[in-house]
Design brief:
This protein has helices at residues 4-11, 17-28, 30-36, 83-91, 139-157, 193-201, 221-229, 268-307, 313-335, 345-357, 379-399, 468-480; strands at residues 39-45, 53-59, 76-77, 95-101, 106-117, 120-130, 179-182, 188-191, 233-238, 243-253, 256-266, 342-344, 366-372, 376-378, 432-440, 444-451, 484-489, 493-500. With 511 residues, it is an alpha+beta fold.
């Protein structure tokens, strides 16, 4: 469905501030519809022919039944369909009468109200309601209709909607929540039954008519500001276990303050929910913080244990495990800073790179470069991905330049022919260069790790390897993240991992 601005551009010559005026009217006219118990439609004449009108907006009341079941926005109507429109437009004044609703084949009461902006007639708002025969309205209905008439006069004078961008949220009070009508001195003229009930929950039991809100023990800041500035104001009154949202709308007549309409809503349940959510968010952050601390403790214990062991495979295995645990702790550290279940993986990658660069030696430094954006990832994806990248960088740093081309007693790792305890590497002081590239699309994330080492041995296959490191990588990518991994030689070793970014996996039980 086209927006109001699009309909105006297509059918009329209105532009700029006038369009903004009409948008503000449509954004907040639910109050008008509720006060008059009727449907409201907004019409503007077409640029050509001018006897045709297009419907720019439509709102139905929450206080009564609707007259129009169909959506009329964007429909172009002829003068025969709404004969009072042309008359009201030509006269520039309020016109009342009856009209036949074609979709219901029944008569309805129609009131055409001019909409002005800076003394310029720019649109017509129609109030359309079913005919009421033999029914005497009660006090509440009479008061609401009277307030609507006052707002309608403001509309025809160009004083309504107000020249500010009003943001009407789902929490904003509506007419059905509770209404107070104030006079020119900000004293209560009328209080609806729902308003009285809401004030009772705030501890106000005395009669309200003829008193000011501050005299009844309520905060009157919004009312005072509305009377001073002649603009609507909203505030929330906190009464301990009860919270009351209060919105004050000035009622003007030729720029003179004649009173105000106060809408109020009991939002105690909403605020209780907000407090519970904040408490839950704090608890989630605390859990991630404690998990991070526990993982760091385990990492420290593994590091202490490895330092007390002689050089060899056992010590190397503990060092590898310590780095894997530390990579998972990095993810939980990021999660502990926010309540979201997503993390920007580019905030995690620098820590993983630093851990791998620490594996370099004086005669063989490790230089790792990374580029691209991984974007926001679910924790269930970021955690195994951190372990995968840690494992790939660690293997590149340790085995891209093996001591020789003979087989290792430890079995093949990433390149299959390196000695884990090697202190030398071919090429003298030539550094090991590792490049990490991230490429994100709507459906997948592609991670490419490339080094300038000796490449893979002939006949190598990741699916046939029995090494622990590549088994972890293969399991995490294929089972946990539902992705694929390929390895090839191209001026070194190239590892490419492709994972779907919306994979539902959330645990590490298949390691």
């Amino acid at each position: 469905m086209a927006t109001l601005a699009e309909l105006v551009q297509e059918h009329t010559d209105l532009e700029g501030p006038v369009v903004g005026h009409l948008q503000r009217l449509v954004a907040g006219w639910g109050v008008l519809s509720d006060l008059c118990f009727a449907d409201l439609l907004l019409f503007v004449p077409l640029r050509s022919p001018s006897e045709l009108f297009v419907v720019l907006g439509q709102v139905r009341p929450t206080t009564s039944q609707t007259l129009h079941l169909e959506d009329l926005v964007g429909r172009v109507l002829e003068a025969d369909d709404r004969p009072l429109l042309a008359r009201a437009w030509n006269l520039g004044s309020v016109v009342e009468g009856e009209v036949v609703i074609q979709s219901r084949s029944e008569h309805a009461r129609l009131v055409c109200i001019p909409v002005r902006w800076q003394d310029q007639l720019v649109a017509l708002m129609t109030r359309e309601s079913a005919l009421s025969v033999g029914r005497r309205p009660g006090q509440l209905e009479r008061v609401y209709i009277e307030v609507f008439d006052r707002l309608a006069r403001m509309l025809s004078q160009g004083a309504f909607p107000f020249p500010v961008d009003e943001v009407v949220t789902t929490e904003a009070p509506r007419v059905g929540d509770g209404v107070l009508v104030l006079d020119a001195s900000a004293r209560v003229d009328y209080a609806s039954p729902n308003a009285v009930n809401a004030l009772h929950r705030m501890g106000v039991y005395s009669g309200l008519e003829g008193v000011r809100l501050d005299e009844a023990g309520l905060d009157q800041s919004a009312v005072s500001l509305a009377y001073q500035t002649r603009l609507p104001y909203t505030e929330e009154i906190d009464g301990g276990d009860t919270a009351l949202a209060l919105r004050c709308i000035p009622l003007l007549d030729n720029a003179s303050m004649t009173g105000a309409l106060v809408l109020m809503r009991d939002v105690s349940d909403l605020r209780l929910r907000d407090r519970l959510l904040l408490s839950k968010d704090a608890a989630i952050r605390e859990v991630h913080h404690r998990v991070k601390n526990n993982l760091q403790t385990i990492s420290s214990l593994l590091r202490l244990q490895s330092r007390r062991m002689p050089a060899g495979q056992a010590r190397h295995a503990l060092e590898e495990s310590e780095r894997r645990v530390r990579s998972i702790a990095v993810v939980h550290e990021i999660l502990s800073r926010d309540t979201a279940d997503e993390v920007d993986f580019n905030d995690i990658l620098p820590s993983l790179v630093r851990m791998a660069e620490d594996l370099g030696r004086d005669d063989r430094p490790v230089i790792i470069d990374y580029r691209g954006e991984a974007g926001e990832l679910q924790a269930s994806v970021a955690t195994p991905l951190a372990v995968v990248i840690t494992e790939l960088l660690q293997n590149a740093a340790e085995h891209a330049w093996p001591e020789g081309t003979g087989e290792s007693d430890a079995g093949p790792e990433l390149h299959g022919n390196g000695d884990l305890d090697s202190e030398t590497a071919p090429g003298g002081e030539r550094p090991l260069l590792v490049d990490v590239e991230l490429y994100r699309t709507d459906a997948e994330l592609r991670v490419t790790v490339r080094d300038n080492g000796v490449g893979l041995p002939p006949g190598f296959s990741i699916n046939d390897t029995t090494s622990l490191g590549l088994s972890i990588v293969r399991g995490l990518v294929g089972t946990q993240m539902g992705g694929t991994i390929t390895m090839r030689s191209d001026g070194g070793t190239v590892v490419e991992v492709v994972i779907p970014v919306d994979h539902p996996s959330d645990d590490l039980e298949n390691l």
